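Revision sheet: structure tokens.
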Amino acid sequence: MIEALKNKRTLMIGGGALVGVLLLGLGYRILFGASNEEDVVSKDKGAWVPSAIPDLPPLVFNPNKDWGAQALQLAQENSVARAKVRAGVRVERDKSDAFDEELITVEQVQTDRSVPDMPRILIRMNHRGDRIVDNVRMDILFLDQKSALLARRPVNPLVVAGSLTGDKVKPLQPGEQREFYVDATQAPLGWLEQVGTELVYYQFAP
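Predicted:
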């Protein structure tokens, strides 16, 4: 009786060990095996194995969500907002959603010392919009050799020198290019003729 129990126990232990080995082998094949071992073995390291990579359906392009659509929509909304700005309304940087930094661009900035002891700054600007602009503030930035700001001087580049009647404002026409000068005789200390500009606000004519 005792001998029969010992044999039965030995068989149960042996059977359990065999099942464990089979389960380990199956798990290893699932985790590290391939769907087709011959295809994988026959390929070089790094080669494409189509049978081991599942087919995926093609993705449909969604213009409302995909890259670029949001930027295009924002540009269209800004264009509509700018078109709705009423005449006589000042459109200011950092205050108006309709502000367009590219409406009036500066094409050239150059220091002019043709007149002794009277340095000037020559600025050439372009109007890239489709409406007449009759009021502008542009800041002239005096910079040091490291491009750090030394001083800021606000100017209205639409003012032209008059005669007996004084200075006048000449509106800027769509597509017009215009040059103007800024006096630099009172430039700050440390200025080495490095200049920048910043469009602060503009106003459309009636």
